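Quick one, probably user error.
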């Protein structure tokens, strides 16, 4: 059945549609509709519509404000019009729906907005007042004898104060409302604050109600509410309600009161009333009014209790033991291994907490306690694991058994309960676990456990299984098969045993970094593998040895020394990828120490190559750590390496030589580099030449042309020969161009010297400016004038240059985060890309550094007019016109036309008059005063009059006072902008 809740209009409605007033004519229609499981609209929608419609404002009445509803002094005036019969009828229908919900406060709070809940509970108080002003809830405390009140008054007062406490809990835990109905909005925060103030009164009233001695109470049902008609006002036939016992009524009060005390962390008082409620529950015959879940009540009682009872669950015993120095924890865990009630994460947490407390000395216990808990947790985990998963005990657990004198005894003792398991699947899982432990233990220890005739082992394994376990070799890898199938299938041959031993040794070599241990493992492996050198680097695919060094190592005799040095160098290169430079240098030093054993020329060459590899690592560390790195003799060693690179004998790798050039470039050794000729390192050499030129001679186009000619063609897609396509369809020069771009990016990303970084950035900025060809969008940088023009016919994509510039700029800011030029350039880049908020952030960061976080005035040579002009345009694009108008004042020649235009914008998105206190220019203040007077904005006008009247802005002040006033306001304004854009 459809229900039309709106006023009937000119459009015909469906024949079966019911209008809201038909529920008043025939009361059975509402109950019939609500009992329909597919009612449309639902009970919730009906209730919200009835309550909302009962608050509709007549044209001659003021609007309802939720704050006024919480103010007793304004209630009567605001809701007086709701006494009219139409609104009375709507309130009665709302009462009927909540009666249908059997006065369940949880349903009311989860389905209805809090503003409508307030209306409902006040309507209920007003309905039963009968001469008393119960709607003024503060007057409830003045009622001397509550027993003299009628049943309906007692019920309404009780419901109101229960609702007050429970709604605080509900809306504190979930501070969201999914309802936004018309002019009545959910101001949850303000309402919660007022309810918190009222909560103390509600607590006292509920305590008084608990002490009443009534034998029974009456709860309203749907049929007791009678809507008003032309002869009589609305009334309630309370005698038709539901009669409940005193125990049922009071237990509901106690439960809600105790929940509030629990929510306020007053557990002792909450426990008293939870237990009283629990006692009443034993002799209770609940009706539809009773909404207490007994399991939930028991949980609250247990949570508030400081002692255990006979009825306490295993989980409660576990938690109580954890709070009382783990008394009886072994018995609890043994029992749980059979009952499996305690969640596994709590048992794991116990293990970790206990280990931490023992290590810190916060708890003392026997040495075996932690091993006991390890074992019982492992057994519990084994018993619930599916049979497809082999339970691999952690290595530290097996280690504890090996190094604890009583480890085997503890292990045997703790698995004795496993023999009591009747479930075949659980027994099989535990059997697999025990087998894995035995296989991981040393052979002699496993034999001792198996041969001692322990009853626990014999109950799990038969004699045949034990004999097969005793026959297995040491270090047998565990395979992922069922235990019974494993014992039946294992057939060990000498060949497979050797391969497995090799596999185990290689696996240990992979994770070992201590030299002596590596030597011992390699000695064992050499006995099993005569062609070890061919497969030594295949142990780990991340291992890599530079080719010149590997070729020399291949020429020395096969021995442990050869393998050890190879692995140490490979492991050094491996940890470089993780930026563990100190560890990498240590490994190379150990490799150098090992190679000193040999004295012939081959060993000398190997040692020299290792020293160059160590130098390479140190240069990478300098590049990574930069300002925190102590250079020492790094510069001299780089120069020596480059001298070797010019010779004809033993040469360092090209990567090492190039890194030497880049390192010398970054430490400012430009003159040394320009006096040498390294033909294979043209770009870093050209950068060094330009850095020297701009520092000595302020830059010439001749010095910059070499870099320009190296970089520009690489980004030109029409570079080199015409696009002759091979069979695969790709241009022949595409691969070379990509490779060159990677080489150039490698050099640029390796730059750390400020001058070198500015040279690279200015080059890219110049290309960007030429390609964009728009004067208002140019990137501003030093040294832009040293670059030649781009020749005609080049095809350089603007997006490619922009991306490279952004990447390089971000890398430079990582190492020079306070560099003013870089910060302004990043702001310019974001500005031309249309990222206005980000541009404001970078410009303001530059201003923050220049002004020492607004502690002193901003210096003009550091922050030029173009920065303020672009900041102004950014604000205009974001419709922050008030900010833009003030930024116009920062320029040397104030742009009043733009300032006045921005100040007169009516759709500004910023704080408007909040910025007026920051204005120091009288002309702008007078314009704003005129503008707001014209628009009759009295509040803005008063604020401007107060600002103009400030003594420091008086036109008769001397220039020093005016300048100081302007500086103070400028810094305050910039600080406000930084809070919005830099630190939002």
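Nope, works fine. Designed sequence:
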């Amino acid at each position: 059945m459809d229900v039309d809740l709106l006023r009937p209009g000119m459009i015909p409605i469906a024949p079966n549609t019911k209008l809201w007033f038909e529920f008043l004519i025939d009361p059975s229609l509402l109950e019939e509709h609500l009992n329909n499981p597919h009612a449309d609209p639902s009970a919730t929608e009906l209730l919200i519509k009835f309550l909302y419609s009962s608050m509709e404002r007549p044209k001659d009445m003021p609007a309802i404000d939720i704050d006024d509803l919480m103010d007793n002094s304004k209630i009567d005036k605001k809701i007086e019009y709701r006494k009219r019969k139409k609104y009375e009828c709507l309130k009665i229908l709302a009462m009927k729906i909540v009666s249908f919900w059997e006065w369940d406060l949880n349903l009311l709070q989860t389905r209805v907005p809090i503003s409508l809940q307030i209306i409902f509970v006040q309507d209920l108080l007003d309905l039963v007042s009968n001469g008393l002003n119960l709607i003024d809830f503060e007057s409830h405390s003045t009622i001397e004898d509550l027993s003299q009140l009628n049943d309906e008054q007692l019920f309404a007062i009780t419901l109101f104060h229960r609702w007050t406490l429970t709604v605080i809990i509900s809306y504190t835990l979930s501070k969201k409302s999914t309802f936004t109905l018309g002019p009545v909005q959910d101001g949850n925060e303000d309402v919660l604050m007022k309810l918190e103030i009222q909560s103390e009164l509600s607590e006292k009233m509920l305590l008084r109600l608990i002490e009443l001695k009534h034998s029974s109470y009456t709860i309203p049902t749907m049929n007791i509410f009678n809507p008003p008609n032309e002869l009589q006002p609305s009334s309630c036939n309370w005698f038709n309600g539901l009669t409940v016992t005193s125990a049922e009524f009071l237990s509901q009060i106690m439960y809600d009161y105790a929940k509030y005390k629990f929510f306020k962390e007053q557990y002792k008082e909450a426990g008293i009333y939870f237990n009283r409620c629990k006692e009443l529950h034993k002799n209770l015959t609940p009706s539809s009014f009773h909404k207490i879940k007994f399991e939930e009540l028991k949980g609250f009682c247990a949570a508030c209790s400081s002692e255990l009872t006979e009825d306490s669950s295993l989980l409660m015993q576990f938690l109580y033991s954890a709070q009382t120095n783990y008394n009886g924890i072994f018995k609890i865990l043994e029992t749980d291994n059979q009952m499996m009630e305690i969640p596994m994460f709590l048992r794991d947490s116990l293990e970790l907490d206990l280990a931490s407390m023992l290590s810190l000395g916060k708890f003392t216990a026997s040495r075996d306690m932690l091993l006991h808990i390890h074992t019982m947790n492992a057994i519990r985990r084994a018993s619930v694991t599916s049979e497809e998963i082999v339970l691999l005990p952690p290595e530290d657990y097996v280690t504890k058994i090996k190094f604890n004198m009583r480890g085997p005894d503890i292990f045997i003792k703790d698995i004795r309960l496993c023999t009591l398991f009747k479930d075949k699947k659980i027994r099989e899982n535990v059997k697999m676990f025990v087998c894995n432990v035995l296989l991981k233990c040393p052979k002699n220890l496993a034999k001792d456990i198996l041969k001692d005739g322990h009853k626990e082992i014999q109950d799990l394994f038969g004699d045949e299984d034990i004999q097969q376990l005793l026959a297995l070799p040491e270090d047998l890898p565990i395979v992922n098969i069922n235990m019974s199938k494993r014992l039946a299938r294992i057939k060990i041959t000498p060949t497979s045993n050797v391969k497995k031993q090799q596999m185990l040794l290689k696996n240990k070599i992979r994770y070992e970094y201590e030299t002596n241990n590596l030597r011992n493992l390699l000695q064992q492996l050499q006995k099993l593998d005569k062609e070890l050198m061919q497969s030594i680097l295949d142990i780990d695919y991340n291992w890599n040895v530079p080719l010149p060094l590997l070729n020399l190592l291949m020429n020395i005799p096969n021995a442990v020394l050869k393998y050890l040095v190879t692995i140490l160098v490979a492991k050094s290169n491996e940890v470089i990828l993780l930026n563990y430079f100190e560890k990498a240098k240590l490994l190379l030093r150990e490799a150098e120490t090992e190679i000193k054993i040999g004295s012939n020329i081959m060993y000398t060459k190997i040692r020299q190559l290792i020293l160059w590899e160590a130098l390479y690592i140190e240069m990478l560390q300098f590049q990574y750590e930069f300002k925190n790195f102590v250079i020492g003799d790094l510069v001299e060693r780089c120069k020596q390496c480059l001298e070797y690179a010019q010779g004809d004998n033993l040469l360092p790798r090209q990567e090492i030589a190039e890194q030497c050039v880049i390192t010398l470039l970054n430490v400012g050794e430009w003159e040394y580099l320009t006096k040498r000729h390294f033909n294979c390192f043209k770009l870093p050499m050209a950068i060094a030449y330009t850095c020297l030129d701009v520092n000595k001679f302020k830059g010439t186009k001749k010095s910059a042309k070499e870099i320009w000619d190296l970089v520009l063609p690489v980004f030109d897609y029409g570079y080199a020969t015409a696009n002759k396509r091979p069979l695969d369809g790709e241009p022949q020069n595409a691969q070379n161009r990509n490779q060159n771009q990677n080489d150039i990016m490698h050099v640029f990303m390796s730059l750390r010297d400020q001058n070198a970084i500015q040279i690279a950035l200015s080059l890219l900025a110049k290309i960007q400016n030429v390609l964009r060809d728009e004067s208002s969008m140019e990137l501003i940088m030093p040294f832009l004038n040293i670059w030649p023009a781009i020749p005609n016919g080049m095809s350089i994509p603007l997006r490619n240059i922009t991306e490279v510039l952004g990447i390089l700029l971000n890398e430079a800011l990582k190492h020079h985060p306070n560099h003013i030029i870089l910060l302004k350039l990043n702001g310019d880049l974001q500005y031309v890309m249309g990222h206005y908020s980000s541009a404001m952030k970078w410009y303001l960061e530059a201003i923050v550094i220049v002004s020492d976080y607004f502690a002193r005035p901003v210096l003009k040579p550091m922050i030029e007019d173009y920065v303020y002009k672009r900041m102004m345009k950014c604000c205009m694009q974001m419709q922050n016109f008030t900010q833009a108008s003030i930024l116009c004042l920062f320029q040397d020649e104030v742009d009043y036309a733009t300032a006045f235009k921005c100040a007169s914008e009516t759709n500004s998105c910023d704080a408007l008059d909040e910025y007026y206190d920051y204005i120091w220019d009288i002309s702008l203040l007078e314009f704003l005063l005129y503008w707001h007077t014209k628009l009759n904005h009295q509040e803005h006008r008063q604020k401007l009059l107060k600002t103009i009247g400030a003594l420091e802005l008086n036109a008769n002040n001397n220039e020093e006072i005016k300048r100081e006033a302007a500086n103070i306001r400028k810094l305050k304004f910039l600080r406000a902008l930084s809070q919005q854009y830099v630190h939002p």
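The radius of gyration is 42 Å.
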